[in-house]
Write a structure and sequence with these properties.
single chain; 266 residues; alpha/beta; Spore Coat Polysaccharide Biosynthesis Protein SpsA, Chain A; 10-stranded mixed beta sheet; 10 strands
Length: 266
């Protein structure tokens, strides 16, 4: 079993090296597409090039969700039946559960895996006390509830993924367990300002999302510690379950199982 990761990045110079170094512990190949960074991110990625980290190209096309399909279609010939794709390796996400061990236990009839994302937050108290976190290791407060999104799918030779699609067609049956990761969307005041500019630009270029992250008021991204839980650094997270319950209805699972079994979905 091999794991191939797709990273689309833009202006993540403060964290990209840490992201790629950690992902290289579990991914066989990480294909990086830089979407027009101006802060040195691409240069950092190039400096980290190795047998695992592949700086594929810079693409200044306005961001769209299907941009990752470019990477998949360029490199899918390297994958075999049963391998996995981390089709969205975000620079600000770090896995708690080792993907190698986790994916090895996914039954053959399950085809994709969603996350149990622990959202870490900057707090108003961080800045009121004049001791802003110097790195993500010092960002210790997180949401009480988690969030789930698809991140891994099992490779199939005839899987279709075109640029018009956010993810491959007929991705299959969702695994019943969720893989845990830590998410550091906002890390400093300067990084927040940069991220808002990037997202606002994407909106101007026609991206339908990002309404939640283009507020120019920096205070809108800072939370009260009383509303969050503290990470004691023990690896045990005090969370109350997911905000969004991703699931597939039993009859959808039955239908997809049949279509895969008879080879209609290959």
């Amino acid at each position: 079993m091999k794991i191939f990761a797709i990273a689309v990045v833009k202006n993540e110079a403060d964290i990209i090296a840490q992201c790629l170094a950690e992902a290289a512990n579990w991914a066989n190949k990480i294909f990086v597409l830089d979407n027009g960074s101006t802060d040195g991110t691409w240069e950092i990625v190039q400096s980290l090039a190795s047998d695992k980290i592949v700086p594929w190209k810079q693409d200044f096309t306005p961001f769209y969700d299907g941009i990752r399909a470019q990477v998949f279609n360029e490199f899918k010939h390297l994958a075999s039946q049963g391998d996995w794709w981390c089709f969205r390796l975000d620079a600000d996400e770090f896995y708690v559960d080792n993907p190698i061990a986790f994916l090895a236990e996914v039954p053959w009839h399950h085809h994709f895996v969603v996350t149990d994302t622990i959202q870490f937050r900057l707090t108003k108290e961080d800045f009121a006390q004049g001791q802003a976190p110097a790195s993500i290791a010092e960002i210790r407060y997180h949401d009480k509830k988690t969030w789930s999104e698809a991140r891994f799918f099992r490779h199939r030779d005839k899987l279709i993924w075109t640029p018009e699609m956010e993810r491959p067609k007929h991705m299959g049956i969702m695994h019943t367990r969720r893989i845990r990761l830590r998410h550091y969307q906002f890390r400093s005041l300067s990084q927040i300002r940069q991220r808002v500019l990037v997202r606002a630009e994407a909106k101007r270029n026609g991206h339908p999302g990002f309404d939640y992250s283009i507020d120019a008021d920096i205070n809108a991204y800072l939370h009260n510690r009383a509303d969050l839980n503290w990470d004691a650094g023990t690896g045990v997270y005090q969370v109350e379950g997911p905000q969004n319950h991703l699931y597939q209805r039993w009859y959808d699972v039955a239908l997809k199982s049949f279509l895969h079994a008879v080879g209609i979905y290959k």
